[in-house]
Amino acid sequence: MSETNNIKKTVIIGSGPAGYTAAIYASRANLDPIVYTGPEPGGQLTITTDVENYPGYPDGVQGPEMMEHFKNQAVRFGTEVKFEMISKVDFTGPVHKIWTESGEEIEAHTVIIATGASAKWLGLESEQRLMNQGVSACAVCDGFFFRGQEVAIVGAGDTAAEEATYLAKLCTKVHMLVRRDEMRASKIMQERVLKTENIQMYWNTETEEVLGDDGVTGVRIKNNKTGESSEIAVTGFFVAIGHKPNTDIFKGWIDMEDSGYLITIPGTAKTNIQGVFASGDAQDHVYRQAVTAAGTGCMAALDAERYLAEKGII
Known about the structure:
By secondary structure, this protein is an alpha/beta fold. It contains 7 helices and 19 strands. The strands form 5 sheets. Strands 1, 2, 5, 6, 7, 8 and 19 form a 7-stranded mixed β-sheet that branches. A 5-stranded parallel β-sheet has the order 10-17-11-12-13. The protein has a 3-stranded antiparallel β-sheet with strand order 14-15-16. Helix 1 packs parallel to helix 2 and helix 5 packs parallel to helix 6. It is elongated, with a radius of gyration of 21 Å.
């Protein structure tokens, strides 16, 4: 084991709104945090163009620019940012061990997990090509841009149902594409969708291609029962087939739901391991917004500070 003075007070794994907010609070509390950015520095917001619902940006802001602001603020207070991935952890003892992808071993009294979650996609080339040009995985984030227009949404669970009804309030028509002949959503959400007049259901339907060059102009669909293909003219295409939390390296250490979301003690960022805290979309499958992620990052840093104080480390 390293000498005590080589043990870090706080290591933050992940660099989205949760990770950088945790870093801002931790560095202001003199916890000397190190942020390991992971494979996507800045998190999902770096692949988002216009952000118009984050407080403090009355004219909106580009996602990558906003995350640069978060990072610069954390660095100003003394956060060290390392553009590396964490590949392994060992939470056996009171001092936690983590390893970078290059094999470096780090020891820390507290670890804040902010690894986020990634949207699941259909895997179409056109879907990726038109990302942020009409293709989105978040209706609450981007629906506003499609007011008064026709859009399509893929999915059949509660999230898809919620997002479809949300879009129906903004858009003239929502074309809902469901792969099977029934939805997986709860009965109450199914009823809400089916009662909404401007949501048109397409059962047994799969997406063949999102159409458009510089923006979405339509979607080509196929009925998997009849084999018949057709096209729908839309300007927005929303994918709501779920998210996968980036928590695989914590399996066997941190209590998690079957879907992989980390479990925290309600009202805190505390996990089942003392000194390990979880924040952002790695533990939130309900809200998944930048502002709520930032809030839980703040909680994690404050919880870490209190833990270190109770242990007499600070």
